[in-house]
Design a protein that fits this description.
The protein is mostly beta strands. Helix content is 6%, strand content 47%. Pfam families: DUF4331.
Length: 217
């Protein structure tokens, strides 16, 4: 199954546990609010179990509470987490997430069949699956093969004061307020979260991480 890139989020993360994030809310070409292929944020951070690393990819930003219940992942959109563990900015490992019916299926970490903007689903590297959580219900998680999985709606965790940012650009303010106003307060995203033992990611102390959504051709 070949898929092609729709949108890219990028983050650099140190495997020691430093939290870094890339954010991109609705300003990529060809996307709109609620688009299943629109990545808003990519997070990578050390898990509560310090031997694990957690990856979170959020999509479909600016969902209102009324719209969240109807928001869904799409069967023809794959979320792919790319991991470069030798510093050449080319993915050495991928973790793939694909929706089928009411579950999200995960593959990897595994070497990609091809690098770049096309991908092959690595069906031989099945890692596990989790039932997709529903809005307003308790979160459903699953643990298989030493990994943990979640997929479903979450409150948008990204904090940004858009009004103050625009004031800075317009020359009417010189900096951000503390704490400022969270533009994304009260809005939701569709999240995919996977926790992976660091031993599955190679021996490097630092990795580069980016995420893509790829649509079935």
């Amino acid at each position: 199954m070949k898929k092609t890139k729709m949108i890219l989020g990028l983050s650099l993360v140190a495997i020691s546990g430093l939290i870094l994030v890339a954010a991109d809310h609705i300003d990529a070409p060809g996307t709109m609010s609620g688009d299943a292929g629109d990545i808003t944020d990519v997070y990578a951070f050390q898990g509560q179990n310090t031997s694990n690393l957690v990856f979170a990819v959020n999509t479909q930003g600016l969902l209102s509470p009324n719209a969240t219940g109807a928001a869904t992942f799409k069967d023809n959109v794959m979320v792919e987490i790319n991991i470069d563990n030798n510093g050449d900015n080319i993915e050495d490992l991928v973790i793939q997430a694909i929706k089928r019916d009411d579950k999200m299926y995960f593959f990897g970490p595994v070497a990609p069949g091809t690098t770049g903007i096309t991908s092959t689903v690595k069906t031989g590297a099945a890692a596990g699956s989790v039932k997709i959580s529903q809005y307003g219900a308790a979160a459903v998680t699953a643990e298989q093969n030493g990994m943990k999985f979640f997929a479903g709606p979450r409150d948008d965790p990204f904090f940004f004061d858009l009004g103050q940012f625009q004031a800075i650009l317009g020359g009417t303010a010189t900096g951000f307020n503390n704490p400022g106003t969270d533009t994304f307060a009260g809005t939701n995203v569709m999240s995919i979260v996977v926790e992976v033992p660091k031993t599955m990611l190679g021996s490097s102390s630092t990795i580069n991480v980016w995420a893509e959504t790829k649509k079935k051709q």
